[in-house]
Structures
1.
Amino acid sequence: MRAQFVLSEIGVGLRRNLTMTFAVIVSVALSLALFGGSLLMSDQVNTMKGYWYDKVNVSVFLCNKSDAESDPNCAKGAVTEDQKKEILADLDKMSVVQKVTYESQDQAYKHYKEQFGDSPLAASLTPDQMQESYRIKLQDPEKYQVIATAFDGRDGVQSVQDQKGILDNLFGLLNGMNWAARAVMALMLVVALMLIVNTVRVSAFSRRRETGIMRLVGASGFYIQAPFIMEAAVAGLIGGTVACGFLVVARYFIIDHGLALSEKLNLINFIGWDAVLTKLPLILATSLLMPALAAFFALRKYLKV
């Protein structure tokens, strides 16, 4: 009988404050959708880091005849065969180096033509203007400075470049976007909490006569508070369910179908459905507990039980 009464009171409360309940559902849904989206974006960035950092190379570019005339680092002339052998031998001795690949001037010219064949500059270049290089795969991409320290400024070396620096700029941008989404999410959570507190306050005020009678007949504090807490929890759970729906639909239509980014952006290793599905229980639990706790603390102030 008591459970039936509590459930009936929940229905009455939700209908009485239908507009504010709808506002709570929408704000909770948006804030938790942003929360889930930020978690998924963090997973995506980490996945991309693991994928791309595993492929980055450190390039040791060697001096050619053109560099000897224009580049201060190559003031002693183009790299010699003995210098190339010494550089390769030293690279092979380094424990941080996993693999070394030599790229000749002809190979560099071919790769340049494949990537930038439409550029006006490509028509004026010749193979002898390209630089020989050693492409170095590191055991740990963070150890770039070891290579730079060992070979920067060495005779025959024009420059040492780390591809990871380019990726760091990209991931810095993605992380900045993720933090911006989290800031908006935090703002929406605050709005949702304020709406929940205000809704509970209005609901308690509109039923002050019933709660007064319940106190007079000896009802416990929890029994009086339960309908209000459950109303907030139900509204939050509906919002959380909507947020989960947003994430599932977004993953389906943006990544797999519709925009189909997984097909159009083959270079990006997108996170799978398992990453999305593991976030849904967390979102639902948050949507249930957050409004319930907010209502509980609001009732201590606005409902004198």
Note: The mean pLDDT is 81.
2.
Amino acid sequence: MIKKIDHVGIAVKSIDKALRLYTDLYGLELAGIEVVEDQKVKTAFLPLGDSEIELLEATDANSAIAKFIEKKGEGIQHIAFRVENVEKALKQAKEKGIRLIDEKPRYGAGGAKIAFLHPKSTQGVLVEFCQRDE
């Protein structure tokens, strides 16, 4: 079902500040910045081999990213697994007793079809299924 790690999402207070670390120190290159209005988040993607680092900055104090940072501080917020068919992956997870955050996929940054699994069912890790047209 899982093809690879698509990306690791890292919650940050400031993408501009975080980019200095990821580009200057780590030598990664910025692929682009995008605001996803319905998720109240600004994202920056930095390719790393076959995967990416996704920096996530809240655009609203009531967003999931703002709440995450308030509760846990900056850091890894989720891991995204690339799947061929997000609907099928959700169905299989639900059949195996995994609690879903998203019963149906939605669109995320870069036009990817995404859905999240609840961390209470995945040993404390927020897992995202991600389907991209290749």
Note: The beta strands are 2-11, 32-36, 41-48, 51-58, 75-83, 106-107, 113-117, 127-131.
3.
Amino acid sequence: MPDASIGIFDSGVGGLTVARAIIDQLPYESITYVADTARQPYGPKSIAEVRAYALEVMDHLVEHDVKMLVIACNSASAAVLRDARERYDVPVVEVIQPATRRAVRATRTGRVGVIATRATIDSMAYHDAFTAAPDVQLTGVAAPRLVEYVERGETMSDELIEVVRDYLEPIRAAGCDTLILGCTHYPLLTGAISYVAGDGVTLVSSAEETAKDVYRILHDRGLAAGGEATPRHRFRATGDSLLFARLGQRFLGPEIDAVEVAPLGGTTSNGHSAASVAGIRSGRSAAAGVPREDAGIEGPSRDAERRTGKEPT
């Protein structure tokens, strides 16, 4: 079991901020990352939809014998955490509680802001998390358009700055000195957010804190890989594998050397089964020798009951 990989998932590239922190803090651990790009973004969707998608992805990861699940998505964490911890025998780590703990330690005034997707804000997950800190005044703002900028790789533009400025106006008006980036996509826009928020506001990203939780649980449960282990990182996408590989390598780095297709969601699109970095550089898929616009297919979804031995919920 210690040699098994850590399963991480998000709706897209945002969860790579969590993957990066885990790789940095736990260099001997292997990870299996699934990006549900065929059904992204999760933020505008209902809690019920996000819950169904998240359970399907986690079933897929558990079927592939991961030793831990990391929900690297705030929307999914809000929708499915309790179900996941009851459903699976492996430890489940999420991103909301670690960010909350860090914000409580960081704030000097007791005024904390959080920007997140609509699904996360509507779920009141952060407000619930802060009930243990009654002296903190929380201001929550839905900032759905920021995900769109990340997913198309746009991290600097006058338009982006204006969008961030509009979203942060209620945070600034409330006098918040600490701001939680309540979506794992948002740390990829730290430059723009910090520029607008100003030096007096501490930004809290859940990635580093989540990785610390992963470290602690692996150590305490005897699940950590040995110091001589050679990690193997695997990346899968339910949508366009080549597009994810291109964006993913930009945000994570050379650890992404290929992206497989995760057969989930019951969707189909034109393309082939995998994308490699060699294909990205040449404009063709090295795995299949096809132009990048044709890369990435999804196979049929699998029955959740067959994967987990439990009734689908």
Note: Confidence is low (pLDDT under 50) at residues 267-273, 276-313.
4.
Amino acid sequence: MNKFEKNVQSKNNDVVDSGLAFVVGFLGLTVIYVIAQVFEVVGRLW
């Protein structure tokens, strides 16, 4: 066993961390898309 396996910084499950990162990234892109759609609709009304 090497020194990195003995001194673990984080004992979190990698699957949970990856899933959370995916959800946060997806929500961020969704917000950008929604904002763009709002600008498009407002632009059509003017």
Note: The helical segments are 3-6, 14-45.
